[in-house]
Specification:
single chain; alpha+beta; Aminopeptidase; Alpha-Beta Plaits; eight-stranded mixed beta sheet; four-stranded antiparallel beta sheet; 14 helices; globular
């Protein structure tokens, strides 16, 4: 019999140690995290392989073998994390502090916590179910936070046979509480927006700042950005988002239940749109978005710059044509002195099968372990490494298997990122039970 109290205490301590490793990206260096996970997996009798995609960039695989009668499931997690300014935190972002029932630190949710859930669930499956119908692949990736060129994308291009799977379990959705009321809603990401990264480069003429002229590259860029910010995409309901709201409607009382189940009606959508779009996360799933993320111009106080740059992070709905968007953007800027450089161009987006064995099994386990909950598909407003697997025709499902509230979600790429010890336990239980059902004869 599994002693869940012991497993939970172990998970909290392991995660605490893992969070102390500052695997920031940029600059990007997964050597220490890969060594940490490799030791944990090896101690549990699992064979580990590492792959160096570039200097200091390490990807890690471990495989729990089955009899091969079914195709593998791949458990995905990434080892890199975004920056954290300790000035704004209530604790050391890399201290791995355990207090008030939480493990605190950068990466607790994104996504070292999930990596530890997967690792311990894998150990339990190995210990208690020696006969399995399929392999389980543990994949700890590099470079997710900067686009995956040295991580998942590189592994697919160079070692596809070693990570090929029938299903991918990735991040993307959450168990959300107090977002749609007190009932927990597990949102499972089955598709995501297209990530288009652009750089606007304004070309002008240099000169002395004491003698201003009309070819100041900084001014040219600011004018272009002012036009760009006039882009105002209309809100609309993608089919996956429509399905999500229909499921949520099942836990609402009238008239909300009726409204959420009938968003295809344009009158109803206009009526409820202000409520739906009041939350930035939900709003981002219902329109194309654009954010200015990097600005560069000039090098000296008294010199007019001849070059200025801005980076744009554009997230398009799955059915959008990036070429049409680019044409509209160029027309809007309407200035030959502004060059549009494509940093990253998205490929076609696909929707993972919601009738698959994995999705149905996951929904069943969630309902049993959290009886009051519902499960709904979602379109994630961000981009995950699932996009690379979906291009290969693999069904990918994104769920951080825990129940978090708005305050905890705010720590995702934000301040005071943390995960409760109770959620670590729930996440391991969910992961283990889904794998058990997917890998053992019923």
């Amino acid at each position: 019999m599994i002693n869940w109290n012991t497993i939970t205490d172990e998970a909290a301590q392991i995660l605490s140690d893992y969070l102390k490793i500052q695997s920031l990206n940029p600059p990007g260096d997964e050597r220490e995290t890969a060594e940490f996970l490799s030791n944990l997996l090896s101690e549990r009798g699992l064979k580990v392989k590492t792959y160096t995609s570039a200097p200091n960039r390490i990807n890690l695989l471990a495989r729990l073998p089955g009899d091969g009668s079914k195709k593998p499931i791949l458990l995905y997690n990434h080892m890199d994390v975004v920056e954290a300014n300790p000035e704004f935190w209530s604790c050391d972002p890399f201290g791995g502090e355990i207090r008030d029932g939480y493990v605190w630190g950068r990466g607790a949710i994104d996504m070292k916590g999930m990596g530890i859930m997967q690792l311990l669930a894998l150990e339990l499956l190995q210990r208690y179910h020696p006969e399995r119908t399929r392999d389980i692949i543990f994949f700890a990736a590099a470079d997710e936070e900067k686009g995956g060129a040295h991580g998942t994308q590189w592994m697919i291009e160079n070692h596809w046979s070693e990570i090929e799977a029938e299903y991918i379990w990735d991040e993307g959705g959450f168990g959300l509480q107090d977002f749609f009321g007190p009932t927990p809603v597990f949102t499972v990401a089955v598709t995501e927006k297209k990530d288009l990264w652009l750089k606007l480069i304004a070309h002008g003429d240099p000169g002395h700042s004491g003698m201003p002229h009309d070819s100041n590259a900084a001014n040219i860029l600011l004018k272009a950005l002012n036009q760009v910010l006039k882009l105002n995409a209309k809100y609309e309901v993608h089919p996956v988002t429509k399905m999500m709201f229909a499921e949520i409607g099942n836990i609402m009382t009238f008239p909300k239940s009726f409204l959420l189940k009938n968003l295809q009606n344009s009158i109803i959508f206009r009526l409820i749109q202000p409520v739906l779009t009041s939350d930035p996360t939900i709003a981002a799933t219902m329109k194309d978005t654009l954010s200015i993320t990097v600005l560069r111009a000039g090098s000296k106080e008294n010199v007019i710059p001849d070059r200025a740059e801005a980076t744009l992070d554009i997230r398009l709905l799955p059915d959008r044509d990036p070429a049409v968007f680019l044409k509209k953007l160029k027309k809007l800027i309407d200035d030959e002195r502004v060059e549009i450089d494509i940093v990253q161009y998205p490929e076609e987006a696909t929707i993972s099968d919601m009738n698959s064995e994995f999705y149905q099994t996951l929904g069943g386990v969630l309902k049993e372990l959290v009886p009051e909950s519902i499960t709904a598909p979602m379109l994630t407003p961000g981009t995950t490494d699932s996009c690379f697997f979906r291009r290969k025709g693999v069904n990918c499902y994104g769920l951080f298997p825990a129940i978090i509230d708005p305050g905890e979600l705010a720590g995702f790429h934000g301040i005071d990122e943390r995960i409760s010890v109770e959620n670590l336990r729930l996440g391991i239980q969910i992961t283990y039970e889904v794998l058990r059902r997917m890998c053992t004869q019923q």
